[in-house]
Write a structure and sequence with these properties.
This protein is an alpha/beta fold. The chain has helices at about 20-25, 65-75, 95-100, 120-125, 145-155, 165-170, 210-225, 230-235; strands at about 1-5, 30-35, 50, 60, 85-95, 105-110, 130-135, 195, 200. The strands form 3 sheets. The chain has a 5-stranded parallel sheet with strand order 2-1-6-5-7. A two-stranded antiparallel sheet has the order 3-4. Strands 8-9 form a two-stranded antiparallel sheet. Strand 5 (about 85-95), helix 3 (about 95-100) and strand 6 form a beta-alpha-beta unit. The longest helix is centred in the C-terminal third of the chain and has 19 residues, at about 210-225. The protein starts with a strand and ends in a 12-residue tail after the last helix. The structure holds adenine. Adenine binds next to strand 5 and helix 5.
């Protein structure tokens, strides 16, 4: 998979060299190129932002550097254009299902906004040239798209064949079909069998694989009902802790 990231802060992406993703890159399972948006400025001060039309606080990222950056990446296309992902709190929610879809794409481009966001004409224009999805990683506001991009990249690249050593662990993930539809995973345990007087549930040590599978499923259902009832009903109950309705 080819991944290009356009950002005003390329140094944010140092974690891409670490752990699972770092290994995936080293093995050539994913090629990740980070580009500085200022490469595509044309004035001596390398200006990327401007005051918003219509007033309001903060600055908006000007369209010209984005247009030039996306044109430069598109010029490298030998076949289909890339999928463009634009992290923004106003985007569609990023889910495991979207991660699975994106993991099948050969080429992703992430456009990381900052400040009040990117001039809206950039997405409009890009959408005439390639598929574009504006994506939110949660109902909170980050300082920019970089951390959201890291979140999405980690979720997507661990699904690429060969990245996670044991593919069964992906099938059992929270939100995975193998994990029982949109359920969160239940508790997990390792040695010692008793720790501070707390024993690992007997069934997990029974060797009865069918009973273990049943137990895991029940635990996942119980935990999902307790913590994420919205996954079961599609709706949060009024008393769901900490979530304004
Ligand atoms: N940029 C700022 N906040 C964001 C969010 N919640 N999701 C994606 N991109 C963002």
């Amino acid at each position: 998979m080819q991944i290009d990231i356009i950002s005003l802060f390329p140094e944010y992406f140092a974690p891409l060299d670490v752990s699972l993703l770092g290994r995936a890159r080293a093995q050539g399972l994913a090629t990740i190129d980070v580009h500085d948006l200022r490469t595509w400025t044309s004035d001596p001060r390398r200006t990327v932002d401007g005051v918003p039309f219509g007033g309001g606080p903060g600055m908006v990222l000007r369209p010209e550097p984005w247009g030039a950056a996306l044109d430069a990446l598109l010029a490298r296309a030998t076949g289909d254009p890339p999928c463009l992902l634009v992290p923004t709190p106003s985007g569609q929610p990023f889910t495991q299902s979207l991660a699975r879809d994106l993991a099948t794409e050969p080429w992703l481009v992430f456009a990381c906004g900052r400040y009040e966001g990117i001039d809206a004409r950039v997405v409009e224009d890009a959408a005439t040239l390639m598929p574009v999805t504006e994506v939110s990683v949660g109902d909170y506001v980050l300082a920019g798209g970089e951390v959201a991009t890291l979140v999405m990249l980690e979720a997507i690249t661990r699904l690429l064949p060969g990245v996670v050593g044991n593919p069964a662990s992906i099938a059992e993930d929270s939100f995975s079909v193998g994990g029982g539809g949109a359920l969160v995973e239940g508790p997990v345990y390792t040695r010692p069998a008793v720790w501070r007087g707390r024993a690992v549930p007997e069934v997990l040590r029974s060797g009865d694989h069918a009973a273990i599978a049943r137990w895991k499923r029940e635990q996942a259902e119980r935990r999902t009902a307790e913590r994420r009832p919205d996954l079961l009903t599609g709706k949060l109950p009024p008393t769901f802790p900490g979530v304004a309705q």
